[in-house]
């Protein structure tokens, strides 16, 4: 008898997490070994259970799907990451692939398609939403580095310059230079527009 695929599921929306767990548990060749509501909890479960696949959303509290993939890749973990999201943006997909993600699927796909994708990934394959995969070739290159992204997320959250400088242990002048560099990279008029453009392109 073929060994079951061991899965950890991570999703911050409880109803959706429970739905995924219930539906995938019906598959005879899947074993749900843990569920998490944020990235930190997901990482703890992966370390504890060493599942074959971590099925995760791209945006969650503590740590998102791409950051989880980067962390697991750096750890040389056995677990591979599959992202299921509402964000049909080529920029997100590019970042996910660069982080070593093996699957990128949309939440409006049928459950049977998700199950088949997980089986394919369990056999060493990949599963990428086909329409989104076509968009990657024409997508703009992500100009941001990890600190740029972290700073723009602070802008999105409404933090003041003083708060951002304190969080990143930067002087006011250094932070102004960071904002200027980010704005120039993106081609925006100000930090708020830079944040909006980055989010639209899937760079955040």
Description of the structure:
- By secondary structure, this protein is of the alpha/beta class.
- The chain folds into two domains: 5-136, Rossmann fold (3-Layer(aba) Sandwich); 146-200, Winged helix-like DNA-binding domain superfamily/Winged helix DNA-binding domain (Arc Repressor Mutant, subunit A, Orthogonal Bundle).
- Helix content is 51%, strand content 14%.
- It is built from ten helices and six strands.
- The protein has helices at 14-25, 39-49, 65-74, 90-98, 111-122, 130-136, 146-156, 161-167, 172-186, 191-200; strands at 5-10, 30-36, 53-56, 80-85, 103-106, 127-128.
- Strands 2-1-3-4-5-6 form a six-stranded parallel sheet, sandwiched between helices.
- Strand 5 (103-106), helix 5 and strand 6 form a beta-alpha-beta unit.
- It is globular.
- The model has no long low-confidence stretch (mean pLDDT 90).
Query: Gyration radius, to the nearest Å?
Result: 18 Å
Q: Give helix and strand order, one letter per element, not per position.
A: EHEHEHEHEHEHHHHH
Q: What is the highest CATH level, the class of the largest domain?
A: Alpha Beta
Going across the major beta sheet, what is the strand order? Answer: 2-1-3-4-5-6
Number of strands: 6
Task: Compute the number of helices.
Answer: 10
Which ranges are low-confidence, i.e. pLDDT below 50, for 5 or more consecutive residues? none
What is the total number of structural domains?
A: 2
| Terminus-to-terminus distance | 43 Å
Average pLDDT level: 90
Helix content: 40-55%
Beta strand %: 5-15%
């Amino acid at each position: 008898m073929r060994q079951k695929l061991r899965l950890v599921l991570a999703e911050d929306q409880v109803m959706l997490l429970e739905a995924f767990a219930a539906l995938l548990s019906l598959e005879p060749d899947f074993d749900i070994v843990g569920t998490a509501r944020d990235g930190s909890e997901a990482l703890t479960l992966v370390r504890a259970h060493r599942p074959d696949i971590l099925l995760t959303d791209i945006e969650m509290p503590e740590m998102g799907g791409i950051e989880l993939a980067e962390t697991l890749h750096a750890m040389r973990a056995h677990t591979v990451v599959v992202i299921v999201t509402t964000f049909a943006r080529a920029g997100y997909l590019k970042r996910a692939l660069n982080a070593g993600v093996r699957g990128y699927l949309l939440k409006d796909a049928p459950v049977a398609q998700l199950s088949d994708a997980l089986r394919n990934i369990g056999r060493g394959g990949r599963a990428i939403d086909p329409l989104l995969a076509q968009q990657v070739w024409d997508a703009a290159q992500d100009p941001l580095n990890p600190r740029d992204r972290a700073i723009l997320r602070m802008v999105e959250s409404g933090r003041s310059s003083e708060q951002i400088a304190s969080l990143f242990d930067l002087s006011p002048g250094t932070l102004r230079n960071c904002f200027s560099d980010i704005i120039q990279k993106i081609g925006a008029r100000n930090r708020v527009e830079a944040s909006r453009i980055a989010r639209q392109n899937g760079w955040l």
